[in-house]
DNA sequence: ATATATCCCTGCGCGC
DNA sequence: TGCGCGCAGGGATATA
């Protein structure tokens, strides 16, 4: 599932294929994904060149020379695939097709259609409804233990829920939230108001480390996507708790099992022995 | 105001 | 072998 590291990896791939290139073809194969596709997509993008590809949380920002900005979100199952030469026949879930003057074909594929596109301008980016209320970028210096504590101290919720709340810190999903809590030895059930400077520092450090490691490995989901036979990607071997139900805790060893619980409708994996 | 539930959607793995 | 079911979880929206 695409979380921040996967989105970052996708952005880097898109940047390589798109920056400085002019779009000669933009086709929407259906009127909507999660939301209606912008109806002036082709009109505003065709003949326009890409000047930058950026990421904000799990959002991909494709900036055009005209100051138009295409915002893309992968949702749960969205993928961008780039073909330099003759692309294979289109898949039923190839919903949006881009083609550059240099002949690259970029397809947005999304079986579950939880992803979406939005079109705005650089001037309006900060006020965009998807971006305006996002919390700090976890890998930037603006995300500190002090900032984190300030956001969570008055909340009456669990640490796990706080990490998934994009207003508090933007970009974590279920996998990396579980992994960061494990690394910081903190229980996902711990109430946020019980977190002081020491625990906040451990957690903020863990979040940064987990995300940076995942990015360094090219993310986990993208590697999965490359393997069309369904074989799991490299990051699978790096996961300490996510999906490891009933396995021995990597820290506590035999006799201490990774437990799966449900928090606000989502699975949480953790070790009740070393995560307090 | 914040916390929780519901919804969107398809593919996959499981049990019978 | 196949069918139905539950699960996967991004984020907006509705409800408590």
Strand and helix map with partners:
Blueprint: H1 4-18, E1 23-28, H2 41-45, E2 50-56, E3 59-64, E4 68-73, E5 79-83, E6 94-100, E7 105-109, E8 116-121, H3 145-152, H4 159-164, H5 174-183, H6 197-216, H7 221-226, E9 248-249, E10 253-257, E11 259-263, E12 266-270
Antiparallel strand pairs: 1-6, 2-3, 3-4, 4-8, 5-7, 6-7, 9-10, 11-12
Helix pairs in contact: 1-6, 3-6, 5-6
This protein binds a DNA duplex (16 and 16 nucleotides) through residues 1-3, 34-35, 58, 73-78, 93, 110-116, 129-130, 154-157, 161, 164, 166, 173-174, 230, 264-267.
In short:
The protein is an alpha+beta fold and 276 residues long.
Describe the structure.
By secondary structure, this protein is an alpha+beta fold. The protein has two domains: 4-127, Alpha-Beta Barrel (N-terminal domain of MutM-like DNA repair proteins); 145-270, Orthogonal Bundle (Helicase, Ruva Protein, domain 3). The protein is 25% helix and 24% strand. It is built from seven helices and twelve strands. It has helices spanning 4-18, 41-45, 145-152, 159-164, 174-183, 197-216, 221-226, and strands at 23-28, 50-56, 59-64, 68-73, 79-83, 94-100, 105-109, 116-121, 248-249, 253-257, 259-263, 266-270. Strands 1-6-7-5 form a four-stranded antiparallel beta sheet. A four-stranded antiparallel beta sheet has the order 2-3-4-8. The protein has a two-stranded antiparallel sheet with strand order 9-10. Helix 3 (145-152) crosses helix 6. Mean pLDDT is 89; it is low at 221-233. The chain binds a DNA duplex (16 and 16 nucleotides) through loops.
């Amino acid at each position: 599932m695409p979380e921040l590291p996967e989105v970052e990896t996708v952005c880097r791939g898109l940047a390589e294929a798109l920056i400085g290139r002019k779009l000669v073809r933009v086709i929407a194969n259906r009127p909507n994904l999660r939301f209606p596709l912008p109806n002036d997509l082709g009109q505003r993008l065709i003949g326009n060149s890409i000047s930058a590809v950026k990421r904000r949380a799990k959002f991909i920002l494709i900036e055009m020379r005209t100051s138009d900005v295409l915002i893309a979100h992968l949702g749960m199952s969205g993928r961008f695939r780039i073909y330099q030469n003759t692309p294979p026949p289109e898949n039923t879930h190839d919903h949006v097709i881009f083609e550059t003057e240099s002949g690259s074909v970029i397809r947005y594929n999304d079986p579950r259609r939880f992803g979406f596109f939005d079109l705005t301008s650089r001037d309006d980016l900060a006020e965009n409804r998807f971006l305006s209320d996002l919390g700090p970028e976890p890998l930037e210096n603006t995300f500190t233990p002090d900032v984190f504590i300030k956001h969570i101290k008055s909340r009456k919720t669990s640490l796990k829920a706080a990490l998934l709340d994009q207003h508090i810190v933007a970009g974590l999903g279920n996998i990396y939230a579980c992994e960061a809590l494990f690394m910081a030895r903190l229980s996902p059930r711990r109430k946020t108001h019980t977190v002081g400077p020491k625990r906040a520092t451990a957690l903020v450090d863990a979040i940064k480390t987990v995300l940076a490691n995942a990015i360094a490995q090219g993310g986990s989901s993208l590697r999965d996507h490359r393997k069309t036979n369904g074989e799991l990607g490299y990051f699978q071997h790096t996961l300490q708790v996510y999906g490891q139900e009933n396995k021995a805790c990597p820290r506590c060893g035999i006799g201490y099992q990774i437990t799966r619980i449900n928090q606000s409708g989502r699975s949480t994996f953790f070790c009740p022995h070393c995560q307090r």
